[in-house]
Amino acid sequence: MLAHPAVVSRLNLMCGKGFRLDHGPQFNNAVKGTAGLTLHGSGDPHKPYVAYHHQNRGFHCAGVTVTWNLSTAPAGGGGFACVPGSHKSKFAMPKEVRNCDDDMGVVVQPEIHAGDILFFMDGAQTHGTHPWRNDHQRRSVLFKYASRTANRGGSRPYYKPETYWDEEIVSGMTPEERAVMFGPASPPKTQEVYLTVDPDGTVHLDN
Question: What pLDDT digit, counting tens, does each position of 178-191 carry?
């Protein structure tokens, strides 16, 4: 599953050669009556480590999720749903589409058969799940891949400033200075990384 030829051939095209597993596998399951998951993604807010980009007559996506489906998801029965083409959207996704109160006819819940492999562009594409309505369980395994230079999961054990840089370097820094010294992590597990500026020009942590 990790380096299956059907996966490698497509990720070489989507993420570029040298792609890597960023995190996973993640095992998903749902029983009849399980609620759906609000649609998210579509590059809002912009996240370069999972973003879609087109340049020099080619496309590139920093983050792609590969889902191995172990059970069938009939059309209209719930499970994975998305907005096709949303990775190219120039406008914010309406709230009503994200919560499917009024999906404007753009949300698709594709029919997926056991054994199918689903590729989607994670943070670059609006996606989520519809409530599971089937008698059998929904079962799938997700692998989160990234291009070689992208960091999706973050180096969580190493992203503290004292470790990512050096304790001697960050020693004595103010909380505001320290905020920009954290290493990559997606999403950060601390509010210490967010800064704001008051009207008078004062910089402080945005807690």
Answer: 988 888 776 666 78
DSSP state string for 106-148? --B---B-TT-EEEE-GGGS-EEEEPP--SSPEEEEEEEEE-T
What SS3 class is residue 30?
strand
One-character DSSP codes across 154-180: B-GGG-SHIIIIIHHHHTT--HHHHHT
pLDDT band at 176 (very low <50, low <70, confident <90, very high): very high
Q: Are 97 and 123 in contact (CB under 8 A)?
A: no
Domains delineated in the chain: 5-146 (2.60.120.620), 156-205 (no CATH)
Q: Which residue has the tokens 């579509």?
A: 42
Task: State CA 12 to chain mean position distance.
Answer: 19
d(CA 138, CA 79): 7
